[in-house]
Amino acid sequence: MIDNAARRPISDETLMRFADGDLPPDAQESVAAEIGRDPDLARRLEAFKFTREELTHVFASTLEVPPSLIGKVHAIHLTTQASGMRSRSLVAKSPLRGRSLRHEILAMAAAAAFLLAGAAGWLLRDGLRPNHAGLDAPLTLQHALEQTPSHEIARLADGRSIEVTSTFASLQKRWCREYKLLDAGRVRSLALACRADDGMWREETSEAVPAASQRSQKAYVPAGSDQAGSLAAYRDRIFDRDVSAEIELGLINGHWSRSH
Amino acid sequence: VTGEFHSRLIDLIPRLRRFAVALTGDLDQADDLVQETCARALSRAEQWQEGTRLDSWLYRIAQNLWFDHVRAKKVRGVHVPLDLEANDLSGADGRTVVENRLSLAVVNAAMATLPEDQRILVALVCIDGASYKEAAQITGVPIGTVMSRLARARRQLHATLEGKATVVSDSKLA
Question: Min CA distance, B118 vs chain A (Å)?
Fold first, then answer.
């Protein structure tokens, strides 16, 4: 365009701000118009659109935190609380400067395991040993339990999915959810998780759903006991009241902060 | 340390980890950095001011720890083996996972060619979605410098990655 010569050339910083939606609305519009007229600008813009969209996409997988890492941070918290340990001593043995902290933290995690078990002690008092003894559910499961309305299916990172079948309030004043774990189109297990005060969902009990031809291998279930009944029995022991779909939606939107 | 602080810290770990991967270019080192950042944050929780952003505070801690590490080692901070052609793409199982990892490896390798001060801006703005102002506050760099460094970094990344992205999508078709 001839009148381009009279205009200030559009800098890369301006194109970047345009791609990031950082310009004031009128400037955003005028830059869009310039880009529409000038293929060279459109080409330069590509670098900024590409780096935002592509990097966001590629790095999404790193949001999946290994449960062991969360466990280590819990352990650091508990150990710091329990012993008043200062992190100065941790940082002096930084894992980034040597690998010693990795081992130290593993040891701390082991030492803190009894503290975790203690914190989750209420889970165990019915004598029905939960599979994971109150350990936090993996992170994508946390998300699914936190955000999925009942009777909707949420996909987990590992390709499996869950369907929440009910939400209820427990006698221990916690929100609890029952769900099915689905894999390759088949229900593999039923489980029950409750949300602890720290905002983490903890699986309290689960039971495998055996294929018709196979028996479940659960050692702690007495021979002859009704598999499908044990989860239901556990639920009955902790059940206080049902949560309606409307209240459930409010809980999901409010991060489950409503008190019982 | 209050339970609420701990709970908010736990909620931020996924983003902190993503930031750490972008900074270190390596999943193991990133997880170490996350642990160390959390350890420091938990023991200095009283230094965090209620009403300010916990995520920015954590990023500052992680950034300082990483820069200390890089300086101590006197090496470039990122070690990413990149041998694109050597990656086996023909595995029948977990194909998507293989491709995702390849993409992350390729991007990390491209990120590794950037200076530390540019890479952290890419991590904050392009990956975490921070505004330029927030990035300036976290890094302590003037906002004008943030924008010029970031624009330079993004031009370079685009130039490096454009070809690689084609290789990845070609392999999908194979």
Answer: 13
What residue type is assigned to position A114 of the chain? F
Cβ distance A20 to B17 less than 8 Å, yes or no, reads: no
Looking at beta carbons, which residues of chain A come within 8 Å of B11?
A: 199
Enumerate the β-bridge partners of residue A104. none
Q: State the pairing for strand pair A161-170/A239-242.
A: antiparallel
What is the CB neighbour count within 10 angstroms for residue A115? 16
CB-nearest to A55 from B40, B42, B107 is B107
3-state secondary structure chain B: CCHHHHHHHHHHHHHHHHHHHHHHCCHHHHHHHHHHHHHHHHHCHHHCCCCCCHHHHHHHHHHHHHHHHHHHHCCCCCCCCCCHHHCCCCCCCCHHHHHHHHHHHHHHHHHHCCCHHHHHHHHHHHHCCCCHHHHHHHHCCCHHHHHHHHHHHHHHHHHHHHHHHHHHHHHHHC
Residues in chain A: 260
Backbone Cα Rg of chain A: 26
**How many Å lie between the alpha carbon of B57 and the closest alpha carbon of chain A?**
16
* pLDDT, tens only, A62-117: 998 888 898 888 888 877 766 554 444 344 344 554 444 454 455 455 444 434 43
Residue numbers in A near B13 (CB within 8 A): 65, 69-70, 73
Please tell me what DSSP assigns to residue A7: S
Residues 6+ apart with CB under 8 A from B103: A58, B165, B168
